[in-house]
Amino acid sequence: MKRGVLKLLLKAGKRIRRSSHPTSEPSVAPRAQETGLDRRFEQISTALGASSDLVLKEIRLGGAAGPRVGAAYLDGLSDTRQLFQSLHGNDRPLEEWLNASPEAVLEELRRTVLAVGDIKVIDGIENAVPAVLAGETALFADGCAQALTLGTSGGEKRGVEEPNTQSVIRGPREGFTELLRTNTALVRRKIRDARLRIDGRQIGRVTKTDVAVMYLKGFASEAVVAEVHDRLDRIDTDAILESGYIEEFIQDHAFSPFPTIYNTERPDTVAAGLLEGRVAIFVNGTPFVLLVPALFTQYFQAPEDYYQRADFSSLLRILRLTSFFVALLAPSLYIAVTTFHQELLPTPLLIGLAGQREGVPFPAFIEALMMEITFEILREAGVRMPKAIGQSVSIVGTLVIGQAAVEAGLVSPAMVIVVSITAISNFVVPAFNMAISLRILRFLFMGVAASFGLFGVVVGLIGLVLHLCSLKSFGVSYMAPYAPLIRADQKDSLLRLPVWALRTRPRSIPNSNPVRQAPKGGNPS
Amino acid sequence: MTTPASAPVSVRQFTILVFLYTVGTTILVIPAGLAAVAKQDAWIASLLGLLFNLAAVFFYLRFSRSFPDMTLAQYYERVYGRWLGKLFTLSFVFFSFIGAATVLFYLGNFINTQVMPKTPIQAISILFILIVAMGLRLGLEAIAKAGEILFPWIVLLFFILIACLLPQVEVHKLLPMFEADVSSLLKGAVSVTGTSALPFIVFLMFYPAFVANRKKAGRGFVAGTIAGGLFIAAITFLSVAVLGADISERQMYPSFSLAKRINIGNFFARVEILIAAIWFITVYFKILFYLYGCVAGLAQLLGIGDYRALVLPMGMILVVYSQVVYPNVVYAAEFDRTVWIPYILTYGLVIPIATWAVGRLRHRMRGKPTATSGDVGE
């Protein structure tokens, strides 16, 4: 057994040696035995190309004459203070260490000495390298074929902060971080149930990004979970740097302006999603967690809806949907009405508008197009600029350009109002990726409105509805619970009834545990 | 997860589609025709038409029970054999194609004369056919869902129309009541059925095969027909009661003129183009299903598994044909008055009844119960 391992190691060592450059090695005695500590260090150093962040540290147990053990880790990825404290702090007498075989030393370290939680025994150098790359520490004992890997992943990381994208007035302030483990822990803290499952995997041939699929067993539909795994399995790429990569690989419809996968920075949103039978996909290195299946109506629901009073939340949702239509249609309606259907306007208003437009040399469509594009430019500039000046520049830009354009007679004041209300309505939509789809479609609608008036707008809307109705997210109708209409789900789609009335889980999302709570019996009313 | 191939259309969706298809172009043109024959009793004729519609629908329900898993075209081939069946399918394809072309002509003509006189009618037809083709390519499931989403908006607009016009109803315009003789009432009712119920024959290309829960779907068929019929009756009633029989008769599109009459406090006025969204949507579904009948029948005829490849070419031909199907509006009106009724009676009633009879006869002669037995009691 031992000989077999040795042979294997010999082979591995040879392979590494052949492709190695014998430079920048730590000063060691040449030609040590294959399991010797110096040889180990040399192998690891070779495998990583003698990277400057590789730390190879040798320690003698029980004093200067004790047996040698060596630790290899990457500086900045590992938190090794505890490891070295426990190694140095062990108070076994020197004789005990000297009498033990290398294997016994390692075993003793693993069982009693090391104050590190996650310790694995590995064979051979080829298993040690990936562990070191993942931030673990490889621990070798001089002359021992086996080695230990210690879960010392740590180093600098961003703390749990308030999320930037989905801020709330009332509700938890914590947001996900870039660290997968922290993120899963944030959700686990909210759902203390044994049925919460996390399936880990690595995606990306080069980046080897950790990806975790989280769901509640017995809540999420098995079919959806299987589908998620299946689609993740099919990803074969070299790099996953953000959950957006995964999203593009696994979404149902590549060519649609509408997002069919929901993303969030908020643990409470993920927890709520899991409880509704959704499946969450965590990706290491990003605070954005994916939730599937996603519904159209979900993009108009803010996490806060469930923390504020029901009546208020319902009104807010209606307001958001109204804003959706304003952001989508305001410029096109303005174009259609001023170009084709002037009779729609009350006469005094029409005269006022005509007076304003008197000096404007462009048709309403060109006017609207100029202003909308200007606004998009300002907005993009505001996003990319340093935070401190970004906002002020965009405000000043809008004001100055808006005012100056009117005074110069390039656009009419009414147009500025339309563009502003459109822009502000666009920000009401809680999900950024849904807001983007609006920005794209708005131009399309302006085009049909300019050519065909309100008829064009209605035709455009029919097309939009058809497209939305054809979308699916992981086999679930995107427009549910409106089409197909699911009566039971109307309690929490456009309206949000009181929490005690949300007795059953949404049927739009396949789940295997339909009832959420007991009927309102115990509630004082 | 659902398997869309099995039953893409739910009962509720089917009911809505029936409603939209019934209303279709009928709402735009029928009040004028009714006012012409029945004068101030036009609304009675439209109610009578609703009864005829129901009779037609009951026949279709009975007829469709002979082929629960087939489309109409498949059933033709089953009853008449391969070649004769294909001949019937071919005539059906032509019928649906011409139906689609006439509706497209009406839409283009309506927009060209009432809304945007300077926009070329071809542009309007092309734009409209583009989304019809889009709908057909997306398939029945998406179409049915879209109907479900659009339906509440139609109802909302309809109630706005009714509510805004109620103050303008003048009862004396309805008097004297029950003056029209039976023959003119019947004539009016038949024209209602001819434009709203008999074109249901194209629905038999997907009903009952692609509709969930056949028994309830039958009830949905009836409910949609009743709702659509009442909708038409309400518009006819308003036309007569607000505009008067004379003006209704002389208008090309009385329901559109009706919407022009809306005036709430001088600021909510001339909103006819908003109300016109009702018929843009219903006409959309009318053309869509005519074209569906056409391409689905053609696919069956040519032995193509999926009709989708045929949608764009047929759509292009349709745009061109809609420009020449009627040389002018006068011809169209004349065609509707004299040719359309016998034409639709042939395709919507005579051929189906004949097929039904032949099918039963062959079934009896064969003397063995088949899977398509029509004797499942209600």
Helices and strands in order:
The complex is a heterodimer of chains A (525) and B (378).
Chain A: H1 2-18, H2 37-47, E1 54-60, E2 68-74, H3 81-88, H4 94-99, H5 102-113, E3 119-123, H6 125-133, E4 137-141, E5 146-150, H7 180-190, E6 196-203, E7 209-216, H8 222-233, H9 243-250, E8 262-264, H10 267-275, E9 279-283, E10 289-292, H11 310-339, H12 347-357, H13 364-384, H14 387-407, H15 413-428, H16 432-470, E11 472-473, E12 476-477
Antiparallel strand pairs in A: 1-2, 2-4, 3-5, 4-5, 6-7, 7-9, 8-10, 9-10, 11-12
Chain B: H1 11-23, H2 26-38, H3 42-64, H4 72-80, H5 82-115, H6 121-138, H7 140-165, H8 182-196, H9 214-243, H10 245-250, H11 254-260, E1 263-264, E2 268-269, H12 272-302, H13 308-324, H14 329-338, H15 340-366
Antiparallel strand pairs in B: 1-2
CATH architecture type of chain B = Up-down Bundle
Query: Would you tell me the overall average pLDDT of chain B?
Result: 89
Instruction: Please tell me what the overall shape of chain A is.
Output: elongated
Low-confidence stretches of chain B: 1-5, 369-378
Structural class of chain B: mainly alpha
Order of helices and strands of chain B: HHHHHHHHHHHEEHHHH
Total number of domains of chain B:
1
Q: How many structural domains can be distinguished in the coordinates of chain A?
A: 3
Give the total of beta strands of chain A: 12
Report the radius of gyration of chain A as a whole number of Å. Answer: 31 Å
Helix content of chain A: 40-55%
CATH homologous superfamily placement of chain B: Amino acid/polyamine transporter I
- Strand order of the biggest β-sheet of chain B: 1-2
Outline the structure in words:
The complex is a heterodimer of chains A (about 525) and B (about 375). Chain A has helices spanning about 1-20, 35-45, 80-90, 95-100, 100-115, 125-135, 180-190, 220-235, 245-250, 265-275, 310-340, 345-355, 365-385, 385-405, 415-430, 430-470, and strands spanning about 55-60, 70-75, 120-125, 135-140, 145-150, 195-205, 210-215, 260-265, 280-285, 290, 470-475, 475. Chain A is elongated and about 105 Å long. Chain A has 3 domains: about 1-150, no CATH class; about 180-295, no CATH class; about 310-475, no CATH class. Chain A has about 525 residues and is an alpha+beta fold. In chain A, helix 13 (about 365-385) packs antiparallel against helix 14 (about 385-405) and helix 13 packs across helix 16 (about 430-470). Chain A contains 16 helices and 12 strands. In chain A, a hairpin with a 5-residue loop joins strand 9 (about 280-285) and strand 10 (about 290). By secondary structure, chain B is an all-alpha fold. Chain B has one domain: Amino acid/polyamine transporter I. Helices cover about 75% and strands about 0% of the residues of chain B. Chain B has helices spanning about 10-25, 25-40, 40-65, 70-80, 80-115, 120-140, 140-165, 180-195, 215-245, 245-250, 255-260, 270-300, 310-325, 330-340, 340-365, and strands at about 265, 270. In chain B, strands 1-2 form a two-stranded antiparallel sheet. The longest helix of chain B has about 35 residues, at about 80-115. The interface of A and B includes residues 221, 223, 344 and 452 of A.
